[in-house]
Amino acid sequence: EREGVISDFKEWLKQPCPSPSLDLTLVSSNKFVGCCSLATSQDHMAVLVKSEESTARPQDDSPSGWFLQSLSLRRPGKPPEPAWHIYVLRKRDSVAMHQQFVEFAGTLKDSSPPMYQHILSEGHILVRSELLQGSAVSIPQSLRTLQESCPGLVDALCICPYDKRAVSSAARYLIMSGLPVAEVVQHITSRYPKESKTPYSILMSYLNLVLFDRANAATQAETLRPLSDKLLELYAELEPQQLTKMLLNSWLEDYSAATATEVLEACSDSFSTPEESHLGQLCQVMLLLRLGRAEDAGGKLGQIPEEFLVSWLENNLGFVVNVGTSKMTDLGKAIHSSRESCFLEFITHCLATQKLSFEAISLCLESHHQETLADNVVLKQFLEKIILSKVELGSLDSLPKAVLLLIDVIFARLCSIAPPRPSPSAPFSLYGSRYQWLDSIAPFDGMTSLGTTSSQSNLQDLMQLQALLCSPHMTTEVANRVEELLALSGDGMTGALSLKLLAWPHTHKMNEATLLVLDSCPSVTVDYCLTFFDTHLQQWRQLLDILLQYAQRETAPELQEEHQSVYKSALDHVVLLTSPEEFFSVLPPNGSLDFYLPFIETSCKLFAANQIAEELHTSVLHQ
What we know:
The protein is mainly α. About 60% of the residues lie in helices and about 5% in strands.
């Protein structure tokens, strides 16, 4: 039968390499290095090997004959040229063959550790090959065998000299084994002394792989809890530069904060770069917060450079804000309280890069339980940045929302019983021109200075709100919000009069606003009407009628004189808007000629001057 097989493959043996369609059971062995061709049947595999040096035929009880289960055929005598060897191997189950690999390797463990490790690796590769090519029936058994082989293979690597690639492979073998992390830690630490470099290098490489994969947290956290402090000590002793990363980014959380603080302080001298030192300080902040030492945590935060802190916050959103609930973490609250400028830059970056929506940031800042809305300076500054276009908005929808929320914040500050926290607000002039007539209305009328510190802050907030309501951001929606807040706060609020006068024209209450300004501060009536009246003569006619009634009705000489002065100012403006014919139509039928004659003359002169100017302009164009 063997001769027939060889005869059938005479032509095939001329090929330079095996056919890819052959069913190979044995994956690799030193016996077959240099294999030129091979042939298979249903129950055996024939291998033709070219050897540069003739070897004696192994005895039946030799390791080669026992291990390979082969029949070795060679030419008799010692040939002068390279010899050919034919091995006929019986096919074996891969799991059974793996067991033979393990048993044979065991005989070499003490005499030749490298060969021991090599043969175990061959058996491991054999089972992995079966998993890749095997049937669905054989896969479960092969997988179980593969996992069971991993710890032994790692032990074989542990007794070998240190090799970086071998350490990396061993760490992955431990993951492949499926053993709980706690069991792996106990296995290495109980079997090998800490002076052994290779075993503990393998362990740390393995921990760096499993502790940072949060998919392991659900199944491993409970069993690893008793060893948490031990892992901290391992990192501090063996890989202190990775300790901060483990504390910040791993899923291991059930360690003692006190122990972690001690370990971190002990290895702080091992940090070789400023970045490592700053990360160590951040870890200390988080640990101090866990221990309830918020004041110490704030002091430690103050030692971290702003540039580093902002950069770290921008890349570690989850440490500051719970994205699911839009609430600050303890670390976020500490940074918000003690490093406001850093926190402001961080949330601004989150909005600009669309990591967080405007609603999420607003909710996060508003829900900070340690501050009222009036004292939330970071929220106020954040909204100011948006409105002043210092942030590239991800969506223009954020702008009107920011305006409305800023109005809420300023109203809260104006209505606050206790003086609110001073806010380094943006100059109100950046919002646009604040109407000059506002300086003649309470609480600014006749004021030469802003007064005490508390009143100064209050008046600055009012001036900022007034400037915002004078800007293009003023809309009907904004005016409605101002009216709602005024109704809740009452007329006693600082600047309530000016806010009504600014809001009412946008809510179709121009007539009410005109009467209010006449009753409260008649001296600014014309300037106010110039701000909100359009060019239609009807509004000015109504104003003149009202002023005439006020002037005639007043009995107090000073009020009568004041309303007459306002009436004359209004006539002066109407003269500029109308032709003589239109001007005559607004005058009362029973008015005094002596009173109105100067205005009539001015109207006629202006009309004549305009006519001459138009004629000159026309003649110039025709020349």
